[in-house]
């Protein structure tokens, strides 16, 4: 009995959240954008690129998981020959170069996506999809049956 009460209350809540999101998506016109920007000026402050880069490098350099990765993964690729120092530096350099390219691409992609997500049409579409998904989850939860 208690499970059924919690289940139906939860399903109703999910449907209510979904309906609210759908209502917002439908009522919001193209001219009136959904406000998703932070209202605090402290969080909107621009950072210099060099400052962000230094913070990222320090975060990665001081992260013990990075050191553990190098200690665990790289020794299996390094032989005991005279060139082990050279091959070690080459492996670390290649790994760092691949990471720089990967994270640079991610920064460019995310900055483009951030611009896209601020548009009103995308916000309405996202609210509509979210509303439909939440209503669907609510219906699925309400129709869930426990089989003995």
Q: Which structural class should the secondary elements be placed in?
A: mainly alpha
The number of helical segments is 5
The secondary-structure element order is: HHHHH
What's the domain count? 2
- Shape verdict: elongated
Explained architecture:
The chain has helices at 2-27, 49-61, 64-73, 84-117, 120-142. With 148 residues, the chain is an all-alpha fold. The chain folds into two domains: 1-37 and 130-148; 47-74 and 84-117, no CATH class. Helix 1 packs antiparallel against helix 5. The protein starts with a helix and ends in a 6-residue tail after the last helix.
A few lines on this structure:
This protein has 148 residues and is mainly α. It contains 5 helices and no strands. It is 72% helix and 0% strand.
């Amino acid at each position: 009995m208690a499970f059924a009460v919690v289940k139906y209350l939860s399903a109703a809540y999910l449907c209510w959240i979904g309906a609210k999101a759908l209502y917002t998506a439908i009522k919001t016109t193209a001219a009136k954008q959904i406000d998703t920007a932070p209202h605090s000026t402290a969080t909107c402050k621009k950072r210099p690129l060099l400052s962000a880069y230094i913070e990222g490098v320090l975060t990665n350099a001081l992260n013990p998981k990075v050191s553990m990765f190098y200690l665990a993964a790289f020794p299996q690729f390094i032989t005991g020959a005279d060139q082990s120092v050279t091959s070690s530096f080459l492996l670390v350099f290649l790994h760092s170069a691949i990471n720089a390219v990967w994270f640079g691409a991610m920064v460019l992609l995310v900055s483009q996506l951030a611009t896209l997500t601020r548009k009103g049409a995308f916000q309405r579409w996202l609210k509509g999809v979210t509303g439909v998904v939440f209503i669907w989850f609510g219906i699925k939860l309400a129709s869930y049956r426990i089989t003995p």
